[in-house]
């Protein structure tokens, strides 16, 4: 049975998206890690890396949680209750065994946005469906389309689907229940004439059980356990520690299991009594991963930062590739599909049994032959059936289909307010005059469409601005500069000046400073503008200009925690450590709610202040818990 309703959850409130396109590089651990794998062992390390979330806008304006009516879609039978969040990436939020009342997943007691995804906002808990680019899916805090689907033989299926703009692919997720099993059949359509880098990881949050174990049919894993690069370790023992017990892992780490091709593809997380969650799949989904925050001080801080009282969690994941340091080449005109199963599991042997015994125990419970039959059945009877839309997604799939006529016929896409001007442009060739740009284009197909209509749009600033953005994304920087200049000459505004500033800064041209100050004066009350300029000042170590520009911004932004953190860093490096300390320790310590995963700014700031003011060795300084987000102690 499929039902819709709203439920009361404590949920962060999402404000407006960034007013700027994402042009700067964001911290992404997987994108920057070196590899020490022999001949890459058939991996595609580094393939498909992206520096930022462009053309999606950053979701960098949110507040902490309040009680909110959150839309949910429920799929249930006599055995299982599965709850999904259609406005938050189709997240599987609860999977409850009706007979025991237990949630098989880690269920966070808050939906608390924090800065961990490619677009900034992310929240822990449930199962997240990550597609397209390395880092959490661009749609993790966005609506997907949802539809009720009736299979040819009367099967009731819940479908989520969308169009992913970076890779130019369509994807769908069909969910149904088979007694005590949640069945998820996934499908990705690459309709393009070119190979695209593809990425998929089903990210499953489960409790970190005291005495619990994670069980995978592999005896080795790729990881970054020493902090220097990707290497291979044995499983379950890595450096003398049995890491199948997550509570024994000290530092934050990803273990990407190297499961032999002939083995079944599964991962399980069980408590000290051998009870927990089992996920398994058909063979295309060959990767499995364990993520642990670890157990040093910074690790504990992150766990508390992401929840209220739900406790600690680990992630068990399943992906198309063997690691998350890579995308997989997806050939043109190709469809990839696979089926996943989520169910409870009870070990027959004590949880402290030999690891191989537990692997055999789980292996005997995994019926991949039946799952392959379900996969085939759904392909023939469900996958191409058109459904009744019950939740609306975005308009980019509609626009892409308008241009290319390549959307799967059974998936219905609709226009939306953000894409309507581009629909009108495709239909008329004329770009509507607007004072701002609330969406940004990507890809040479859109570039070609723009250029074909240059004559009738030669007086529109946004026409050349969008060309410049596509050039920038494609690393055609000289062409991007020419288009940015044309746009500025038609209408000088914060958007095209920001693009030109970014181009000059990347080229090492000191004239970037003129444009940086100019856009701060234009938009002194715009967080996205001020944050971008201040971050640029820190990147080029122009601390005095940041301090000067701070006086230009609105009083409200002067109180923003991230802006104050940037100012403190500038003060420290400009020789005013006392001012930096005042900012850092005020009100019990600076609380930066969108502090970035992998960032060490606060840690370095505190150590630097202790060195400058008190003569302490920065390597021996103990950073207070409230400021410590470092999760690798090496």
Attribute tags:
single chain; 634 residues; alpha+beta; nine-stranded antiparallel sheet
Radius of gyration using CA atoms only: 25 Å
Question: Number of helical runs?
Answer: 17
The low-pLDDT segments are none
Give the rounded overall mean pLDDT.
95
Beginning-to-end CA distance, first to last residue: 51 Å
Spatial strand arrangement across the major sheet: 14-20-21-25-11-10-9-8-26
DSSP, total strands: 26
Task: Tell me the structural class.
Answer: alpha+beta
Biggest beta sheet attributes:
9 strands, antiparallel
Q: Helix fraction?
A: 25-40%
Strand content: 25-35%
Broad shape: globular
Explain what you see.
This protein has about 625 residues and is of the alpha+beta class. The chain is about 30% helix and about 25% strand. It is built from 17 helices and 26 strands.
Short description:
The chain is an alpha+beta fold. The model has no long low-confidence stretch (mean pLDDT 95).
């Amino acid at each position: 049975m499929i039902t819709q309703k709203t439920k009361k959850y404590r949920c962060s409130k999402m404000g407006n998206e960034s007013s700027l396109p994402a042009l700067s590089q964001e911290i992404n651990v997987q994108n920057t890690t070196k590899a020490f794998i022999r001949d890459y062992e058939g991996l595609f390390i580094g393939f498909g890396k992206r520096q930022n979330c462009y053309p999606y806008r950053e979701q960098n304006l949110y507040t902490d949680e309040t009680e909110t009516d959150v839309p949910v879609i429920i799929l249930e039978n006599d055995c299982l209750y599965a709850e999904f969040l259609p406005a938050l990436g189709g997240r599987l939020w609860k999977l409850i065994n009706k007979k025991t009342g237990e949630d098989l997943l880690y269920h966070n007691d808050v939906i608390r946005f924090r800065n961990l995804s490619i677009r900034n906002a992310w929240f822990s808990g449930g199962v997240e469906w990550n597609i397209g680019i390395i880092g959490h899916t661009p749609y993790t805090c966005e609506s997907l389309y949802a539809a009720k689907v009736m299979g040819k033989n009367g099967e009731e299926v819940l479908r989520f689907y969308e169009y992913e703009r970076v890779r130019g692919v369509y994807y769908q997720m069909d969910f149904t229940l088979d007694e005590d099993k949640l069945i998820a059949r996934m499908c990705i359509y690459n309709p393009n004439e070119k190979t695209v880098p593809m990425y998929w990881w089903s990210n499953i949050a489960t409790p970190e059980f005291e005495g619990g174990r994670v069980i995978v049919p592999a005896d080795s894993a790729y990881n970054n356990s020493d902090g220097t690069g990707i290497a291979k370790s044995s499983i379950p023992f890595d450096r003398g520690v049995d890491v199948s017990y997550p509570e024994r892992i000290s530092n934050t780490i990803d273990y990407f299991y190297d499961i032999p091709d002939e083995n079944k593809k599964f991962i399980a997380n069980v408590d000290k009594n051998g009870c927990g969650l089992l996920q398994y799949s058909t063979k295309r989904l060959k990767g499995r991963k364990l993520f642990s925050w670890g157990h040093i001080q910074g690790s504990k801080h992150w766990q508390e930062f992401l929840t209220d009282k739900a406790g600690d969690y680990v992630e068990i994941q399943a992906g198309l590739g063997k690691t998350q340091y890579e995308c997989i080449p997806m050939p043109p005109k190709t469809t990839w599909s696979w089926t996943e199963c989520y169910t409870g599991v009870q070990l027959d042997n004590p949880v402290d049994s030999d690891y191989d015994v537990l692997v055999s125990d789980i292996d005997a419970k995994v019926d991949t032959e039946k799952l392959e039959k379900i996969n085939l059945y759904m392909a023939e009877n469900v996958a191409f059936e058109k459904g009744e839309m019950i939740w609306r997604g975005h308009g980019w799939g509609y626009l892409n289909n308008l241009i290319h006529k390549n959307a799967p016929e059974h998936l219905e896409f609709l226009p939306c307010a953000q894409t309507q001007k581009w629909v009108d442009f495709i239909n008329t060739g004329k770009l509507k005059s607007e004072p701002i740009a609330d969406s940004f284009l990507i890809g040479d197909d859109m570039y070609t469409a723009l250029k074909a209509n240059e004559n009738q749009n030669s007086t529109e600033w946004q026409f050349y601005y969008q060309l410049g953005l596509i050039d920038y994304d494609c690393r055609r920087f000289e062409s991007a500069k020419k288009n940015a200049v044309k746009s500025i000459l038609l209408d000088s505004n914060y958007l095209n000046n920001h693009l030109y500033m970014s181009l000059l800064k990347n080229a090492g041209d000191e004239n970037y400073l003129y444009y940086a100050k100019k856009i701060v004066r234009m938009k002194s009350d715009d967080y996205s503008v001020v944050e971008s300029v201040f971050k640029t000042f820190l990147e080029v170590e122009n601390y005095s200009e940041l301090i000067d520009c701070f006086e230009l911004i609105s009083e409200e932004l002067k109180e923003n925690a991230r802006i104050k953190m940037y100012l403190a860093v500038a003060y420290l490096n400009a020789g005013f450590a006392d001012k930096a300390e005042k900012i850092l320790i005020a009100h019990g310590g600076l609380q930066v709610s969108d502090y970035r995963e992998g960032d060490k700014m606060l840690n370095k700031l505190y150590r630097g202040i202790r060195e400058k003011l008190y003569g302490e060795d920065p390597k021996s300084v103990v950073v207070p818990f409230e400021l410590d987000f470092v999760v690798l102690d090496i």
